Amino acid sequence: MVAAGSETRFQRARSPEAKQQREAAILAAATRLGAQHGIRQITLTDIAAAVDMHKSALLRYFETREQIFLQLSASEWREWTSTLLTRTREMAPATATCAIAEALSQTLVRRPLFCDLLAQTPLNLERNVSVEQVRAFKLVTHAQVEAIAGELRRLRPALSEVEAVDVIATATAMAGAMWQMATPPTEVAELYRNDPLLSLAVFDVGARLTRILTALIDGYGTQA
Fold it and tell me: What 3-state DSSP class applies to 143?
């Protein structure tokens, strides 16, 4: 559990508008806490305290902490897609592969909460929610993947639809995993920095991800 500052105390929502405001406040609190402490550290009690609610009251709006963070993950997917496409739509098909790869990697690493959510979603967030909630989340992510895949194929017409999806899956999966590797606990990070034998544990996530995605996209381009 983490210490959290309280928001203004809410009365029970009596209208659809009030309910939406309450849900938005809960999601905003979860966003702040997740960004500050990491998704794994945040409990439902922490989120309830941040909006000055009792845990039992919060359960009227979200069944589990996983549901809250899964909804945040869906929002992050939409926002990442919008940011990425805004950047890539300025590119022509002749754009260097490394620039395309860098657009993918840099727009990911600049969203650390999203990277954390990408790692936690398959491990935890999809496992304590209803099947309906998982389906709703997957429909959101699939729509974003389709939009990004279409843009990748515009920039690299030789990519098949499956290959474009592979690039996106690699980018998001590795961004989630490498972000976790690059942000260890303080004592472990100090160990990595001070022990020459562990120097490979200290790396730039964006640069490494750019190199991997460049090689992947170019490799697909050389296939018969």
Answer: helix
